[in-house]
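Quarterly update from the structural biology core.
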Amino acid sequence: MSRQPDHVPADRVVHFDIYDVPGADEDIQLAYRAFQQAHPDIFWTPANGGHWVATRADDIEAIQRDHENFSHRRITIPPMPPEYPRQIPLEVDPPEHAAYRRPLTRALLPRVVNALETKITGLTVQLVEALLPRGECEFIEDFAKILPIAVFLDLVDLPRADRALLLPLAEDAVRGTSVEARHRAHAGIAAYLMPWIEARRAHPGDDLLSQIVNADINGKKISQAEAVAFASLVLFGGLDTVASSLGFIAHFLARNPDHRRQLREGLDDPAFMQGAIEELLRRHGVANTARTVTRDMEFRGMQLRAGDMILPPNLLYGLDERKVQDPLRVDFTRPFPVPHATFGNGPHTCPGAVLARREIRAFLTEWLRRIPDFAVRPGTKPRLATGMVNGVLSLELVW
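Predicted structure, tokenized:
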């Protein structure tokens, strides 16, 4: 716990621990929203070193787009020590950020993802048809942590067999409750990546890892230390975020047969499916990235000090009734575009968003064609976890 700073009003102090949110074992997004509804729009928590939390859509977007006042230089809660390497490109502000982001953007353009369509669909069909006769599965291990991770490991041309080694490290990196746990995870990934990085820097291929570790930053090849940091962050994102989204969506559909029916009836309607996927993403946001206040300033009536940390939770944007009418209702006919910040806003919007949407669509299409009705196994409930990336750790389904 951190003591209350002098510039924080007593009536803005609320205990909020991103790693232990009351009610998160039932519904993580609703647990966050309870703080949005019960407390001031912006409050300060003494947990995890002490930081501000902005809970309303307009403020979340303003913070995400204003890198001059709200820097990305440290984005975890609690922040990693100053001597720890930056998480490239996430902890790099514009204009420097653009050069680091460019290889990711190029590697994940819609036309590149379109070329992966056959592979994504084929792997999805293979997984679902293998599960179908069993009548049951543990969805996270049997599907959510296979489909997006296999696609990603192929993109970076790393062995799919290394999944078992990498997943526990990714888990600690995004949901580790201490700086020490996250540091060990990053060190483990760096040790794993080093020989691959050295090989790709010496003999580049056309894979995403080769593009990252040989990136041209303002006319100069990225340093090896930066290449390790860059590759590590991309690996963590590729190994966890889409798997978490798939878990939340499968859990929702397992409990809502009317929504399953609507999706089955609309599987061949591209416009309907596009809106439905956005609506599912709106209701089930996963990622959080904090910001560092760069100067003493007033923001929405609060006095912020240089060095303060502030968390604008992405998932709360789409759950704000000031932005979204009846936000707790999942409505596949909601007017497009569906308001949410699941992939962030501004220059740091997730470059993998196109690929994530494509993998979610493949799951919905191929799963619901073959397993139209399914439920959470009676007597069980999913194991959920909060953190910098909220996730579903286990989900037992039957059909």
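The mean pLDDT is 93.
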